[in-house]
Amino acid sequence: MSPRHHLQKRPTAWAIAAAFALQGMVAQAATLTVTVLAKDGQPLADAVVIVEPANPGKRLAPAPIKAEIQQEKLQFVPKISVIPLGSEVLFSNLDRYDHHVRGLPAGLAGLNASPETGFTLMLPARVDGKKPSSATETLNEAGPLQLGCHLHGSMRASIYVADSPWVVKTNDEGVATVDNLPEGSAKVRLWYPRQLVEQPATAVKVTAASAVEVPTSINQPRRRR
Ligand SMILES: [Cu+2]
Q1: Could you tell me the distance, in angstroms and rounded to a whole number, from the CA of residue 38 to the centre of ligand 1?
Q2: Would you say residue 153 lies in a domain?
Q3: Which InterPro entries match (predicted)?
Q4: Integer Rg of the chain from CA
Q5: By CB distance 3.0 to 4.6 Å, which of 149, 174, 177, 214 could disulfide with 155?
């Protein structure tokens, strides 16, 4: 090898910069914007969007958080939460009635559950001049949970306990923006409370800025409040 040839082979500053840029592109976080439509074709809020990349790579579990769910005017607020696995949830009762928080796996698993399954909290009625009663629960199992109250059958809510960072609830425009995805093929699954039939997964190609519309046969809930 001549010295000259050797010189030519040496990577130039430009080549090094290009290599870094390329590396940056490969590692670049991609975004998928998912719009979920109800049976009537209108945006569906509060649907849980779960993106499952074909090659998730070294996926990090989402960091646990401290979440809050309140009981107010005979309702759970919020009605649907996406909370990372291992998080602690603070439940508070702001009403002047006693409430329970009965947490059970959603769907059939919950129907067949024994009394020991899930968790039960008792939150006494609010008393003037005192802090509302509250209790915490740590979510140690991934998947959807339904919340109820033994005293008030209409009090219903859900928590989707996420073991992946790619689980996002749709906003009022029916949109869930899922960030930091690896590029490439992925599946989009949905979870929605009271859903009778599981929606088939949607295959997508995730790019730097990709979007998909997912029509469903889910009925719009009646107008809330
Ligand atoms: Cu209650």
Answers
A1: 30
A2: yes
A3: Cupredoxin
A4: 23
A5: 149
Distance (Å) from CA 141 to ligand 1 centroid: 24
Q: What is the DSSP pairing of strand 66-72 with strand 88-93?
A: parallel
Domain end among 163, 198, 215: 163
Asked whether residue 83 is domain-assigned, the answer is yes
The alpha carbon of 116 and the centre of ligand 1 are apart by a number of angstroms equal to: 20
CA distance 189 to 53: 11
Instruction: Give a yes or no: residue 12 inside a domain.
Output: no
The 10s digit of each residue's pLDDT in 7-30 is 444 545 555 444 444 444 444 589
What is the rounded average pLDDT for all residues in the chain? Answer: 87
11 or 160: which leads in pLDDT: 160
Evaluate if residue 225 carries a pLDDT over 70. no
Which of the 8 DSSP states describes residue 95? S
CA of 99 to the centre of ligand 1 (A): 4
Q: Are residues 92 and 54 both part of a single domain?
A: no
Same domain, 72 and 152: yes
Distance 59 CA to ligand 1 centre (A): 39
Residue 53 C-alpha to ligand 1 middle, in angstroms?
40
Residues 132 and 71 in one domain: yes
36-82 pLDDT, tens digit per residue, is: 999 999 999 999 999 999 998 876 789 999 999 999 999 999 999 99
Does a cis peptide bond (omega within 30 degrees of 0) precede residue 78?
A: yes
Alpha carbon of 219 to ligand 1 centroid (Å): 26
pLDDT category of residue 200 using cuts at 50, 70 and 90 = confident
∠ CA(73), CA(193), CA(216), 5° rounding?
Answer: 130
Query: Does residue 25 belong to any structural domain of this protein?
Result: no
